[in-house]
Design goal:
The complex is a heterodimer of chains A (642) and B (106). With 642 residues, chain A is mostly helical. Helices cover 71% and strands 2% of the residues of chain A. In chain A, helix 1 (3-24) runs antiparallel to helix 2 (30-55). Chain B has 106 residues and is mainly α. The chains are: A mainly alpha (642), B mainly alpha (106).
């Protein structure tokens, strides 16, 4: 098997499985569907591992091109060309490895998680569709094929969020995700076309080369590249849930928990981060866009962190935490440090998938209880999940070196911000305040993570917890594997083993000079928060104060009013318009268009109807009159005189 | 024969035609309407033959047309009357004002 076919197989196999399950899934038992998905994901992961091991990730760059795909116009200037080509350079292959390996583990986890679900075949079909779309997204050789994957993951996300469609909460959440992403995707397409127009190529390699060749020319100074970057930013914000297109992510928790782990933590929401890394040269050339991105990212980061600390629902808390981490990645992108962003992407994927899967394990075996107050002490009954959650939490905080890669990546992001243009230039004060805002958000991260842990580790309420049991064997296996992977990633990053493979040639070496200081602060805060939430026996003024602080009020309760604003400004007018239009088109109603047309017809025919009374004599008279009139006209026209 | 000229003959034709026409418009009985139609046709026939007699006396076109017209009128009368009888059998009515519905008669 040569490299091209390995690449192609790796991307296509889950898709084949998705088609298979979509067609025959209903007739197969759910467990079999699950195992098929695991097999497909494993095969896909094996292909990519094989690729990576044969050549080493650093030097990988193969093209597998099944053929031409889009072609408008003659070859040359002005022709729109894109091929069905997959390429695996460092970035794409690293992402593909992440997606396929995480997909394999989470498929395995899903088998047990979905065992009592009668629609699990549909779930696994969507799952496999998602995998193939995401692999196409990250391996696509040109921006239009990326868009295919981009839409594919959006569709799969919609299908999976709406998995429990019989429940009242799932369909609106799915629509929300879908619509919000549509808005982003329009921007993405506009940006892609504009870039194509400016650079005359759709594949990333020629794009970058053409862009470098533009240096200093008129096209670069015209600002069109900046506009394209802005449009792309809109697309990225939609998929990666940045302000103001972030509203769908918390609601996306309506889907099954493994979906949240795979799609809304580890892979799909990072598509924007991936694309920004892929097109980092565009963003580096557009400081204005970077500034906007920095502002949006910091707002997202703060909002996500703060709201995560106030959620009563364990999954929503993790969703807001995801939001915050995505914001963090974009802080890195805004500081022209795609390498730091990608590092954090991988670190975050590991620990957040772990947290979500552990949360899923908790939810699954506390009989779909998601409220933190009623989940008190649940971890004490679940040793494996407990370890996994702790590993995830330490990763989320990023406080300990060697325990999690996020310790390094967060530090790298802070440092890249500290050394970015925002700090150096005339806006130094803004850059510095941005730095401290990010740092503050990191402190809040510690707070919400250990608040969660505090709840889950406090004394169990025996009346509720008597029937709780540790999850099944596959779930535990997955959790252990992911925990090991997360810790191994941390160790590998700490020892500097990854420098040679994943990250070589990805921008400059990252500074890290204050990580121990930060880590100290984080650990201290973590201990304090944990003690506060886990041991309610501590009675003091401080405790009461924290109670007061931890009660959501006003904007915190309403998630900073984003949903309300959207409802008021966007949804309500549109709904009103739709209602009006629907009433207008309603054949039953008097005021509607069909009724109006009918009324018009009746009014117009009222006069005529009386002529058609069925009286033969009248008809004859009219006929004669008309004949006479016709004759008169004919005579008059012919100029004859009577 | 001061009255036997084109104008007088055409006047007779017009009078016949108009009388028939009024009959068609004003009568309600289908039979009477038929009769009036025949009268109108006769008015036209008189116009035909008189035009032939006074304007083109050496041709016979008017006569041919008159023959044709009479033939058509006869055929029409036969068909019309048979339809009328069929209608009458259906609805027991010969008044056109009562035959206002399509389909089955009232």
């Amino acid at each position: 098997m040569n490299s091209e076919s390995a690449l192609l197989l790796g991307a296509i196999l889950p898709g084949v499985n998705a088609a298979l399950l979509a067609i025959y899934g209903r007739r197969l038992p759910g467990v079999l569907c699950g195992w098929l998905s695991v097999a497909a994901a494993t095969a896909s992961a094996s292909c990519f591992i094989l690729l990576a091991s044969v050549q080493g990730v650093a030097t990988a760059n193969w093209i597998a091109a099944p053929g031409e795909w889009i072609r408008f116009g003659a070859v040359g200037v002005g022709a729109l060309q894109a091929s069905m080509a997959l390429s695996a350079d460092q970035l794409g292959l690293a992402m593909a490895l992440l997606v396929s390996i995480a997909g394999t583990l989470i498929a395995l986890y899903s088998i047990q998680y979905m065992e009592h679900d009668e629609n699990s075949s549909r779930y696994f079909a969507g799952f496999s569709l998602f995998l193939t779309a995401m692999l196409i997204l990250v391996l696509a050789d040109n921006i239009f094929l990326t868009f295919v994957g981009w839409e594919g993951v959006g569709l799969a996300s919609y299908l999976l969020i709406g998995h429990y469609w019989k429940e009242s909460f799932a369909p609106p959440a799915a629509w929300k995700a879908f619509f919000t992403n549509r808005i982003g995707d329009v921007f993405f397409l506009l940006g892609a076309f504009l870039l194509y127009r400016e650079l005359g190529a759709a594949d990333y390699v020629s794009m970058e080369a053409n862009f470098k060749a533009l240096d200093g020319s008129e096209a670069l100074n015209s600002g069109r590249i900046v506009i394209a970057a802005f449009f792309l930013l809109g697309g990225i914000a939609g998929k990666s849930a940045q302000i103001p297109l972030h509203v769908w992510l918390p609601d996306a928790m309506a889907g099954p928990t493994p979906v949240s782990a795979l799609i809304h933590a580890a892979t799909m929401v990072t598509a924007g981060v991936y694309l920004a890394a892929r097109l980092s040269w565009v963003f580096v050339a557009a400081p204005v866009v970077q500034a906007v991105l920095l502002i949006a990212a910091i707002i997202t980061l703060l909002l996500g962190s703060v709201l995560a600390a106030y959620q009563a629902d364990i999954k929503r808390a993790l969703a807001y935490s995801t939001l915050a981490n995505l914001g963090l990645m974009f802080v890195a992108h805004a500081s022209s440090a795609p390498r730091a962003a990608m590092e954090h992407l991988f670190a975050h994927a590991a620990f957040k998938a772990l947290l979500f899967l552990a949360a899923g394990s908790i939810i699954h075996f506390a009989h779909h209880e998601q409220n933190l107050h009623r989940l008190k002490g649940v971890l004490r009954r679940m040793p494996v999940t407990r370890v996994a959650f702790w590993v995830g939490a330490i990763g989320s905080v990023g406080a300990l070196p060697f325990a999690s890669a996020s310790f390094y990546s967060k530090e790298a992001i802070l440092q890249s911000l500290a050394h970015s243009q925002f700090v150096a230039g005339p806006w130094g004060i803004a850059g510095a305040s941005a730095y401290w805002l990010v740092f503050a958000a990191e402190l809040i991260t510690v707070l919400y993570t250990f608040r969660l842990l505090g709840y889950l580790e406090s004394n169990p309420d025996d009346s509720r917890s008597a029937h709780w049991r540790e999850s099944g064997v596959w779930i535990r296996l997955t959790l252990v594997a992911l925990s090991v992977a997360a810790v191994a990633g941390g160790i590998a990053r700490g020892m500097g083993w990854l420098e040679k493979s994943f990250y070589s040639g990805w921008g400059p070496e990252l500074h890290a000079d204050s990580d121990w200081l930060h880590a100290l602060v984080f650990v201290a805060l973590a201990v304090a928060v944990f003690a506060n939430f886990a041991t309610p026996s501590v009675r003091s003024r401080w405790q009461r104060y924290v109670r007061w602080l931890a009660t959501p009020r006003g904007p915190l309760e309403r998630n900073f009013y984003f949903d309300d604003i959207n409802r008021k400004l966007l949804a309500e007018p549109l709904l009103q318009l739709a209602r009006t239009a629907s009433a207008f088109a309603d054949p039953e109603s008097e005021g509607g268009a069909p009724g109006m047309i009918g009324q018009l017809m009746l009014a117009a025919s009222g006069r005529v109807r009386r002529l058609l009374a069925g009286l033969l004599n009248e008809y004859a008279a009219w006929m004669a009159a008309a004949a006479a009139a016709g004759l008169a006209i004919a005579l008059w026209l012919s100029g004859a005189s009577l | 024969m001061t009255f036997f000229n084109l104008k007088a003959c055409l006047a007779l034709a017009v009078i016949l035609f108009a009388a028939g026409g009024f009959g068609v418009f004003l009568r309600r009985n289908m039979l009477q309407i038929f009769l009036s139609l025949e009268i109108m046709l006769n008015g036209v026939n008189i116009a035909l033959v008189s035009l032939n007699r006074f304007l083109w006396p050496e041709t016979q076109t008017g006569h041919y047309l008159y023959m044709l017209s009479i033939g058509v009128a006869a055929v029409e009368a036969a068909i019309g009357l048979s339809m009328l009888i069929a209608v009458f059998r259906n609805s027991r009515a010969v008044e056109s004002s009562e035959l206002r519905k399509l389909g089955d008669a009232s």
